[in-house]
Task: inverse folding
């Protein structure tokens, strides 16, 4: 286990990635940040941080909560016939798995998304059990993806008009988390992991109302 760790709590509205977004003042960010030794892989240390969050969330969420991994794929120019064919053949989740990324177990949904610039891609969701959140969080540091929890069981957040509207924003990081942040009233929490290339500090974090973070923070 990586020994050097930092647990940090901040107001989400103070984060530069939310510049231009009107966030409520009671939305906090709880970050589990671990220092990575040179011989440790980023994936391993991020998984440790994600597991710390999982244990804390297991004692903070309700039995009726539903957990989702939502992702948006890269855009494809429809004039690129080969690229468009391959994109439609694989869709979102098959394309992700072809890169070697492991996805959480659970029902999957995906749909074609038309971006504002005329390109298209795929958006999708996976409904997973909370014990799979470390697996789900790994995708969020590699792709345009987020984990989220809802109060009730819903059929598919991609089909929800709030989530579907994310596609009109953009496809680039960290646009999805910015777009989702505008709908905090709809979620129990949003979560993502971070760390790339040769970063010495990596980890995972959740975005939620202060009251929810109050329950999670002592358990991390």
Result:
């Amino acid at each position: 286990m990586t020994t050097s760790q930092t647990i940090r709590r901040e107001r989400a509205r103070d984060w530069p990635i939310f510049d231009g977004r009107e966030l409520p003042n009671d939305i906090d960010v709880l970050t589990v940040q671990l220092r990575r030794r040179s011989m440790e892989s980023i994936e391993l240390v991020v998984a440790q941080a994600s597991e710390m969050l999982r244990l804390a969330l297991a004692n903070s969420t309700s039995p009726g909560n539903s957990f989702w991994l939502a992702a948006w794929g890269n855009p494809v120019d429809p004039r690129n016939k080969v690229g468009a064919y391959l994109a439609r053949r694989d869709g979102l989740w098959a394309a992700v798995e072809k890169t070697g990324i492991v996805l959480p177990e659970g029902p999957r949904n995906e749909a074609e998304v038309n971006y504002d610039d005329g390109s298209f891609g795929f958006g999708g969701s996976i409904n997973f059990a909370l014990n799979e959140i470390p697996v789900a969080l790994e995708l969020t540091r590699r792709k345009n993806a987020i984990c989220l929890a809802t109060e009730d069981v819903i059929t598919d957040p991609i089909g929800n008009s709030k989530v579907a509207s994310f596609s009109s924003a953009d496809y680039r990081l960290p646009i999805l988390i910015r777009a989702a942040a505008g709908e905090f009233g709809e979620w129990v929490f949003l979560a993502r992991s971070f760390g790339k290339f040769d970063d010495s500090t990596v980890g995972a974090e959740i975005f939620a109302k202060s009251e929810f973070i109050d329950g999670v923070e002592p358990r991390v």
In short: Helices lie at 42-58, 81-90, 93-98, 133-140, 161-164, 175-181, 210-216. The mean pLDDT is 87.
